[in-house]
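INFO  loader      accepted 1 record
INFO  loader      residues=167
INFO  predictor   begin
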Amino acid sequence: MTMREILHWNRPLNMPIQHRGSRGITLFSLPDEMNNFLYNFFGDIDYSSWQDDLSTTLPAIDIIDNEKDFRVKAEIAGYNPDDIEISVTDGSLTLSGKREEEEEEKGKNYLRREISSGSFQRTIALPETANCDKAEASFKNGVLNIEIPKKAGAVHKPKKLVIKKVP
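INFO  predictor   done
INFO  writer      dumping tokens
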């Protein structure tokens, strides 16, 4: 007995398949259906307060390994550079900062309020080749740039190898 006979699937093999539930739900409409389900179950609740604090307060970072140094870029828009602390030790870089909550203006009718306040701390592991004593930081347009040079012995130019033919 073939699988087609077991499933009673008597459709042509070249017919496209579109999976739908009993209510016509596709994978693309799933987020909307979930929102409708939550609204019907809980009523009109502000779900933005349920967001994970870590995802809203940790700055996004880029780490770049150049020939002579390591560069770390962190998005800290909205933070005062005086409220950011950077500590570099052998093996790690720690960024921490704090943003105070702005006073909610009385009489204003907020339709949505997403700007977060609070503090963050993020530690990044550094390779042994990082020269932490000579690290420097700068801040421009909401982006924190940290440059950590590599130790003198760690900066090598690649050596080109010649392949020997073995008889």
